[in-house]
């Protein structure tokens, strides 16, 4: 009796275990049947490497479904149609797009769906029968692999150009350019303006200004002499001339002051002087020559006034008025 009771207990536990397994399978099946899916078609142009039936479908990184079927597009054999099933709560809108992404270094791929943004209607709510289509894009890696031939060709062309640049002839030309630059730089260094020469030019300008001042004084004295010997009409004319001469005297005095500040100008502009070229030096010498010619002109005017002031001012000879002795 005891042996029979022992076998009966074992059989009871085996039967209960079997029933528990059956109940779990039924529960799991009901759970999967209760889950609702939406079906979509994703169209890819070109090969879909690493994608197969059962591959994951993700929305913003979260798994929401899987690939149910893969096939060619009946309208265009270059396209691949992936039929996917995603959870009905997945917000796939009319602007959503899919991208084929690699699954690490496994060689497998999955489909990543991106939302088009807020405010767009859901794709499943559009009228029409059958699964709605989502436009697919290749990943950056897939695009790189597809364009690998052109990339390698471009790299080879670039290497050929580098080799052409580094050829012996090109290197020799480059060395020649460097030598020319060095020669030009040496000439520029050797042609810097000498500060001493510029100081001598400033001194010459000051001397010319002093000569102009002396000439103006001489003209003033001459005009005073003319005033004592001329008649009333000539005296009025000479008065106007004297005013003009005094204006010239003031301008000459201002020029003398400017020349007197030449040393300070040289000190402040020493850096700029170092950058002067030979052409600037030539222009300065021409300016000094012009001033010298101006001084000579004033000297000739003074001589004319001293020799015959009436003729210089009046011009042609007029009726002479004899002064009483």
TrEMBL record:
Domain spans labelled Mce/MlaD:
45-114
Q: Can you tell me where the transmembrane regions are?
A: 7-28
Q: State the organism of origin.
A: Litorimonas taeanensis
- Keyword annotations from UniProtKB, A to Z: Membrane, Transmembrane, Transmembrane helix
Q: Name one Pfam family in it.
A: MlaD
Cytoplasm: present as a keyword of the record?
Answer: no
| Cited InterPro entries | Mce/MlaD
Q: Mind telling me what this protein is named? A: Phospholipid/cholesterol/gamma-HCH transport system substrate-binding protein
């Amino acid at each position: 009796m005891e042996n029979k009771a022992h076998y009966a207990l074992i059989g009871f536990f085996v039967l209960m275990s079997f029933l528990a397994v059956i109940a779990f399978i039924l529960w799991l099946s009901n759970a999967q049947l209760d889950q609702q899916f939406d079906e979509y078609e994703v169209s890819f142009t070109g090969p879909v490497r690493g994608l197969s039936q059962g591959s994951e479908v993700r929305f913003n990184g979260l798994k929401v479904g899987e690939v149910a079927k893969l096939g060619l597009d009946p309208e265009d054999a270059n396209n691949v149609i992936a039929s996917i099933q995603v959870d009905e709560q997945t917000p796939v809108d009319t602007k959503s797009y899919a991208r084929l992404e690699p699954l690490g270094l496994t060689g497998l791929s999955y489909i990543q769906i991106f939302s088009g943004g807020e405010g767009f209607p859901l794709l499943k709510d559009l009228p029409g029968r059958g699964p709605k289509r989502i436009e697919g894009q290749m990943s950056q890696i897939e695009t790189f692999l597809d364009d690998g031939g052109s990339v390698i060709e471009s790299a080879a062309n670039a290497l050929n150009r580098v080799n052409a640049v580094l050829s012996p002839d090109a290197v020799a030309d480059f060395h020649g350019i460097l030598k020319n630059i060095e020669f030009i730089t040496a000439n520029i260094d050797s042609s810097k303006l000498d500060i001493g020469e510029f100081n001598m030019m400033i001194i010459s300008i000051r001397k010319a200004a002093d000569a102009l001042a002396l000439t103006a004084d001489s003209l003033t004295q001459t005009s005073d002499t003319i005033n004592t010997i001329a008649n009333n009409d000539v005296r009025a004319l000479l008065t106007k001339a004297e005013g003009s001469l005094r204006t010239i005297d003031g301008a000459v005095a201002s020029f003398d002051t400017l020349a007197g500040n030449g040393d300070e100008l040289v000190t402040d502009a020493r850096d700029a002087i170092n950058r002067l070229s030979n052409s600037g030096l030539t222009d300065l010498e021409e300016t000094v020559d012009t001033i010298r010619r101006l001084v000579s002109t004033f000297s000739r005017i003074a001589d004319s006034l001293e020799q015959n002031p009436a003729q210089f001012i009046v011009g042609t000879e007029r009726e002479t008025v004899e002064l009483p002795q």
